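Notebook, bench 3.
Goal today: get a predicted structure for Origin recognition complex subunit 4 from Labrus bergylta so we can plan the truncation constructs. The sequence was checked against the plasmid map this morning, with no discrepancies at the termini. Length recorded as 434 residues. Pasting the sequence as submitted so the record is complete.
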Amino acid sequence: MSKRKVKDDHMPVGECITQVQEVFRERFCCQKLPEQPEGVESQHKHLLELLKRTAVHGESNSVLIVGPRGAGKTMLLKCVLRDLLEEKEVEKNLLQVHLNGLLQTDDRIALKEITRQLNLENVVGDKVFGSFAETLGFLLEALKKGDRSSSRPVLFVLDEFDLFAHHKNQTLLYNLFDVSQSAQAPIAVVGVTCRLDVLELLEKRVKSRFSHRQIHLLSSLTFPQYAERVRTQLSLPDDFPDDKFAQDWNASVKNLCEDKSVEEVLQRHFNSSKDYRMMHMLLMLCLSRVSVAKPNIKPADVLEASKMCFTDAKANMLHGLSILELCLVIAMKHLNDVYEGEPFNLQMVHNEFKKFLHRKSSSMYNFEQPVIMKAFEHLQQLELIRPVDSSSAKTQREYQLMRLMLDHSQIMEALQKYPQCPTDVKQWAMSAFG
Ligand SMILES: Nc1ncnc2c1ncn2[C@@H]1O[C@H](COP(=O)(O)OP(=O)(O)OP(=O)(O)O)[C@@H](O)[C@H]1O
């Protein structure tokens, strides 16, 4: 929908809500880059200058962007590239190659992708090269201008950089860093990684060719700053089509952030993660509860959204188990308590389960051995239990040693929510020893 400038007129609430959703979808789903990425101004300047040196002056460079997941590494790089490409000459000249360690899992695939992204497939044709270096050299040579005097600058972005270090002989990294150091062609190599110890992964000859420039995105945010960030992220911009609605919305967001219960929720999120990605997830869930009938966010929405963010995926899986499977998990929990986390086998679990059954008169839980075996296998498929040693596959299934992949609190939490859980099963789970 187009952003009509009504300003003094009021739009119908329904239309305002649609606009609100559009604004926040763009902001939270990374469809629109922020004008100036907040909190990383110096890193932005540093990276922009570095890449400019390659794009404009033809210098070669290499740099690593290091920071935890969701810290904004990709966003920083995208903002820098956007600003860099604003210069006409750069836009015309600079070539980009984007590789990802999750996709280009070996150097042969990476080289194919480089050729494809540089549009050199036809130039390479059926030529056979002796080594990786030869191919890369050929590709860079092919990019030289007609008079061979200068080469077009190429930016290599290696996302999930640490994964490239696992490639055989680290050939790709060695060659890229070698070119960047020896000034054969103007290239900039930008590695993006969440591993702080990434340099340790590099072989000596690779490390010595790297410039050792690193840009760190480590957050030193305090809680008041975090709360303020939540407020600004939830606020509507000045150019929102309906002024009155935007003012009311922003005032209600301010009140919301000052609410005691909301502050507690935010504190909990702040303690577990300070990054934008987690914050956006929480805010997105809050916004999904906004409707025409309730055109603002209430503290209860934040509480509900937070609960959804923190639900444990494994504990959730327990809700789908049959009662027999649940009983086996409880038996394993008791075994874990008694033997202090030592592995167990199906026979031991079955015996533990039988102890519980003996105390009961009803035959409701009488199951044949094959049925128990099937339930046990299902738990293994769900990865709620795992064999201690996968090589012991030859051992008879009943005696294969297993470990429970759930902890006490996950089981107890799941039991509380299990639909119509029989009371005796609940009591059995809570009893100290089987
Ligand atoms: N300074 C910022 N301002 C606004 N949004 C941000 C900022 N930093 C990060 N984000 C948002 O946080 C989310 C995660 O950012 P990004 O993908 O850049 O993280 P990353 O460090 O590259 O993560 P990963 O290591 O998983 O690739 C994105 O949706 C992005 O828009």
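The beta strands are 61-66, 95-100, 154-159, 187-193, 214-216, 385-387, 402-404. Residues 30, 34, 37-40, 67, 69-75, 194, 276-277, 280 surround adenosine-5'-triphosphate (CB under 6 Å).
Flagging this for group meeting.
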